[in-house]
Amino acid sequence: MNAVSDASLLTSGRGLSLVAAIADRWETLPYPPSGKTVRALLATPAPAPHPS
C-alpha cells in the first residue's frame, strides 16, 4: 500500500480526537473505495426539573 491508502485506514487523527473527546461511543466503518464513515453517540443530559 502507498502512504495515501495507509492514511485512509487510520482510525485516529485529526477530527477523530474531537469525536472521541465528546462522544459516549463512536466507531468507524469503511466507505469504499477509499474513505470511512464515523458514527458517534452523544448522550443528552436529563432536563432539569421545573420549580413548582
TrEMBL record:
It comes from the Bacteria. This is ATP-binding protein. It comes from Streptomyces coffeae.
